[in-house]
């Protein structure tokens, strides 16, 4: 379990722990793990300075497979542990792994506060729209009417959109990727690592056992091009084969509409994406599917103070204005008398 | 403890010397009784009296004025001898309105002195307090000495030159009252005037008005015909040293700061506001320069998890709370037990179950602390006995947490947390450091490798090269720290976790009798904030010739290694607790002895008299 070597240039293998990976065959988690382990050496972070923290669920097994520091905690609370880790040592590179149940059901509260505080961590939310580890109940991202073991008559509750939730919480970085799309996921991971603040990454992850094909509508070969929109800051919102389609923000309805470039539409009409504009991101995330494509990539990015840095600044300020801490003086404060 | 004080009109000019007195200030929650009580306390401390105080807040932040549930009280017991409790029944009751009189009069000693603000005895206030007719107009107060003064009117007249509105002027009446009380007990006014100048530095008109009120109350005593109520309480013989007044919550917070310094660790407190523990968070948030980081988390669970995260990363993780918060933290505490990380949990207990009575005290959480988790999840549990003792108990808790890589629960309660006593300030050089060493050597490392003696695992923090590892709540192999579902391994790990905590018994002092002999007819065994009351009751019973001893437990889990033997040296064991009998259950199951419970669950501390009566009753019943 220990590793005594500290090589200069790391490879994917250096990030693989000696633990046998135990997800179901065909699980999307394998693809995500492979991409993460492939990208990590490029980030230039020493493994001992990297901590992977998770809650409970299939995705939360992730830290065991990373040859870094890792902490598999309790259900839904990974963000709270991360808060303590970063308060104690802001220099650590902290990565959280959660799922739609862990992050949005039992841990929804902590996710909200993590995002508004803007703790400098990266969070990967594996969204498979089902409870896998407990063997197939519907999740807070399952579609209405989902028939599962716990909802034989179909689920009654409306799903939450993880990325829209993150934006609503004031997230400073929101991105979305697909488990098997290694190049795009890899790029999003790099961008997330470069961002100071909470980098929220929603990853559509297929559960082959309890919710197989949940994302086929936009991830399979037949639909991929027409139903995925890869956004990029400063670039027009184009998608489809040869980028023949685009999205235009209708200035009077404030809704997106599709521009068909082949049918007389002009690229000049297509909205140029601004990742700092929360309203654009929310509008993309609220588009009905399959009439509109699914937006992927870095959807939102702004800079603001991080919680851990603010704590550190307060500590430094207090030290500067109070001088060397003197316990003797502190114990004798508040009015003393001598007998 | 003060003896009953004869408050009888006497020679008008010489202050009468008293061994001690118990004074209770009571008024509307807006009447400033806590401030009055605090200032009166400082004056008693400066006069070198030994003392103990007990504030009794209403549950409402601002209850409707004049109602009985809006009454706020502050009791002080000060004496020329050792004082261990705020006292049973007050010798003097200051009642600022009819509701305060109604609520507190039943406690006043027969023949005690009653200082009343007659100006507040209006028809409206009488009705709100539930009085059909004014007690000032009938003989219902005839068993007491009554000083009925229109304090409201006298205050407004006294502060006139400060130019306040009548409403604001009237709010100075607590300082008028304090002035009168200072005159009665011969206290100087200067320290309070200096306090006012500091407190209202930016509002000079309030300094002026309150100072005028204070002086007017004092002068009233001087000029009016009340000099037969004048007393003097001489200084108490105390250990030489530097003293300060300290509340349990302050002492708890200072204990955390000291623990950080003594261990050489940064401290991270995760907390969520909860009565009566919030002051620990408030206090600690001021000590960032001592390397104390405070996080006001989104809930109790996150507060505990953040503390564990901080310990994982090499700080001393601390979380403070009260009963309902403890319940919420339990799953996280279980994780800290499973991953064997230090964690200091400060539980300022209050009356339960559920929300219970947040402002009232109770020894509510002993069983929750010792047993309240899923699985076999042993932790160390300590309990503080007095406000000042909170400091030492917290430091000891941190020592054990870091040495044994375990959560440690420190139990105090609302009575200790809000109560205050003079505290002999320790010299830092007299506190024993317990420097923490992190694992850095990769040779033969795995995360659950243990010290053979303490059975504590090595503490390897992120950022250390060569020690990459993963920990979690899943059972791990004794030999490698990797996940393991092996049946024999689970048995072995469960046993090791239990042995580790049990082994702490070899690292703590043996139990020592506090008062009396180490064998005999009856042992009164207590824990926590009942210390002062039990001690005085046992002393009084011994003075009356009874064979009774007092032992007070700081270590609840594990028990001191000689406890069983000590208990068997007594014919009977009586266990007074402010609950339905929690420690007594543990004692019975641990030692198979017929320990007897004396339970009081009223949200109020034991009175010495109650304990004495019970001790005598128990002794009598065993003899018959």
Strands, helices and their partners?
The complex is a heterodimer of chains A (339) and B (624).
Chain A: H1 28-39, E1 50-54, E2 69-72, H2 78-88, E3 93-99, H3 100-106, H4 108-117, E4 122-127, H5 162-168, E5 173-178, H6 182-194, E6 199-204, H7 216-219, H8 224-227, E7 228-230, E8 238-239, E9 245-249, E10 256-260, H9 278-285, E11 294-301, H10 307-322, H11 327-331, E12 336-338
Helix pairs in contact in A: 1-6, 2-4, 3-4
Chain B: E1 16-17, E2 20-28, H1 33-46, E3 50-56, E4 71-79, E5 92-95, H2 98-104, E6 113-117, H3 123-128, E7 145-149, H4 151-158, H5 166-170, H6 173-184, H7 190-199, H8 204-223, E8 231-232, E9 242-247, H9 248-263, E10 267-271, H10 278-284, E11 292-296, H11 300-312, E12 316-321, H12 323-339, E13 343-349, H13 366-371, E14 380-383, H14 389-404, E15 407-413, H15 414-418, E16 420-424, E17 470-472, H16 487-502, E18 520-527, H17 531-543, E19 548-553, E20 555-557, H18 563-568, E21 570-577, H19 583-591, E22 596-599, H20 608-623
Q: Could you please describe the fold and organization of this structure?
A:
The complex is a heterodimer of chains A (339) and B (624). With 339 residues, chain A is of the alpha/beta class. Chain A has eleven helices and twelve strands. In chain A, the strands form two sheets. In chain A, strands 2-1-3-4-6-5-11-7 form an eight-stranded mixed sheet, with helices on both faces. Chain A has a three-stranded antiparallel sheet with strand order 8-9-10. In chain A, a hairpin with a 5-residue loop joins β8 and β9. In chain A, α1 packs across α6. In chain A, 48% of the residues are buried. Chain B has 624 residues and is of the alpha/beta class. Helices cover 36% and strands 19% of the residues of chain B. Chain B contains 20 helices and 22 strands. Chain B is globular and about 85 Å long. The N terminus of chain B is likely disordered. Classes of the chains: A alpha/beta (339), B alpha/beta (624). At the A-B interface, β1, β2, α2, α4 and α10 of A face α1, β9, α9, α11 and α12 of B. β2 of chain A pairs parallel with β17 of chain B, so a sheet runs across the interface.
